[in-house]
Design brief:
Layout lengths: L1 H4 L2 H39 L21
Length: 67
């Protein structure tokens, strides 16, 4: 029985050492995706139609200078 538990000890140590960086990377990825979503919403607000200037296009019935 003690021989079965012998190889398990390094696995448990490696797993416990890898847990903190894995959880930290999950938190960082979550924060990055949240910030990118907020940036996308902010850019939508900039380009909303009510804040853009009105462009004056010439009438299509006016004389065409190229013809």
């Amino acid at each position: 029985m003690s021989q079965v538990n012998q190889p398990l000890c390094p696995v448990v140590i490696c797993l416990s050492l890898a847990t903190a960086p894995f959880l930290g990377s999950l938190l960082i990825v979550h924060q990055i995706s949240q910030r990118l979503g907020e940036l996308g919403e902010a850019s939508e607000e900039v380009f909303r139609g009510d804040r853009l200037p009105i462009l004056n296009f010439p009438d299509s019935s006016s004389t065409d200078p190229l013809s």
